[in-house]
Amino acid sequence: MGLGPADGDSRPAADRLGHERRRGTPPARLVAPLLQFFATSPVACPYVPGRAERKLIVELDGAAAALVYDDLSRAGFRRSHHFAYRPACRGCVACVPVRIAVDDFRDTRWTRRIRNANRDVSGDLAPARATPEQFRLFSAYQKARHGDSEMATMNYRDYRSMVEDAPVRTRVAEFRDMAGGLVAASLIDRLDDGISAVYSFFDPRQKKRRLGSWSILWLVEECRRQDEPYVYLGYWIADSPKMAYKARFPALECLTEAGWADFECPSPQPSPRSPIDPSKRPV
Q1: Does 35 reside within a domain?
Q2: What pLDDT, on a 0 to 100 scale, did the predictor assign at position 3?
């Protein structure tokens, strides 16, 4: 992982950082910690029935955790608690890292409809502190949308750990209607080149609002306010309706073997594998 300054680059550090953030390459680092990666055992894929999921994980620890995660995010990693991970499934490339290029983002008819449906909703960034109000909304969302998942069984202590157990620059974006009621929230990580949307949840009764998509639009505007170039959305999975919606966002980029590029990825065609009981879930 090349973390040092380029040979012969005499520009001031601030100028180099601004240039590197815009082109999506990692800024210069003074220290490059050694990382030890681990591969998990295969389990049933929670997104595509009949496939196996395997992850490459690394612990985020120490004073350099946030800087390391900045670089890992550009390499397609996501975060859960103190760990960064990315798929490492044998014979399958269905999970494609995607992000929105904020400078190139232009509203479409679809995004304008979502904005119009949520004119009475406002957003604000709060410290990464769990609240009973957030947890009530989180629980309602899980029971309505993901009732058979492990997250649907989380208690307040589990939720608090998800929000607060973070070694990086984490915040909670809260979205409220005109009456002050919490209708959506998004756990986010601040990166040196933008925002990573870690996990979002919303009032499942208000389907017409498309609050999940609206929260992403709000993050795009937050990046514009902070002059930050990217909103990282995690993985696009063509065969998973829960993930395929991300392709509708304008100015989407995907991570390829050659680096980040405009989103023109065809539906992945993974190699055949032995069938796995889709009713089974990781424990």
Answers
A1: yes
A2: 33
68 touches 78 (CB < 8 A):
no
Q: Is the residue at 193 inside a domain?
A: no
Polymer length in residues for the chain: 283
Q: Please say if the pLDDT value at position 137 is more than 80.
A: yes
Parent domain of 64: 13-94
Between the alpha carbon of residue 151 and those of residues 2, 204, 245, the distances in Å are 37, 16, 21
Task: Answer whether 107's CB lies under 8 Å from 248's CB.
Answer: no
pLDDT of residue 144: 92
Confidence check: pLDDT of 20 > 50: no
pLDDT over 50 at 184, yes or no? yes
Residue 181: how many CB atoms within 10 A of its CB? 12
30 in any annotated domain: yes
Mean pLDDT of the chain: 85
Phi/psi at 178 (nearest 5 deg)? -65, -20
Long-range contacts of 180-187 (CB under 8 A, 24+ apart): 182/133, 182/134, 182/137, 183/121, 183/137, 183/209, 183/211, 184/121, 184/137, 184/211, 184/212, 184/214, 184/215, 185/134, 185/137, 185/138, 185/215, 186/215, 186/219, 187/128, 187/162, 187/163
Q: Is residue 138, in this structure, part of any structural domain at all? A: no
- Tokens 């490492």 sit on residue: 88
Number of domains in the chain: 1
C-alpha distance from residue 239 to each of 35, 112, 147, 165, 270 (Å): 32, 26, 20, 31, 11
Confidence of residue 150 (pLDDT cuts 50, 70, 90): confident
